[in-house]
Description:
Belongs to the Dps family. By secondary structure, this protein is mainly α.
Amino acid sequence: MSTEQRAKDVAELELQVNRQLSNLHVLYIKLHHYHWYVKGPHFFSLHEKFEDMYDSTKNHIDEIAEHMLAIKMKPCASMDEFMRNATIKEASGHEAADEMVETISDDLFAIGEESKQLIESLEEHQEFAIADVFHAMLEEYKKDDWMLRAYLNKE
C-alpha cells in the first residue's frame, strides 16, 4: 500500500472514529437531559439508570479519545464538531418517560451498528487496542439495550 493510500485510509478511519465519539457525546448529553427531566411512576429507577449510563458513556468517551491521541488521531473536542459529525439526534425536550427509554434504545442500536463496521475497519488497519474499546462498549450497550427493551416490554 502506498504512503498516500495509507494516509487516506487513516484519515477515513479518523473520521469514522470521530463520528462515534460525536455520537457518544450526543448520547451523554441526552442521558443527562433525561436524568434531569424524567417524570412519572418510574422516576426513581429511570433517574438512576440514566445516571449509570451517562457515567459509563463518559468513561467510553475518555478512553476512545485517549486511544485516538495515542495513535496520532485528533479527536473532536467541540460541540460544533460533535453536532456536525453525529448521526444520532439531540433530545427534543418533550419526551415522556417511555419515549426517553425508546429513544435511548434506538440510539444504542444505531451506535452498535455503526461501531460494528468501525471495528472491522480498525482491525483491518491493525488498530486492535481501540477496536477492543469499542468491543467492550458494545457488550455493555447490548446489556443496557436489553434492559431498556424489557422495561418497554419489547424483548
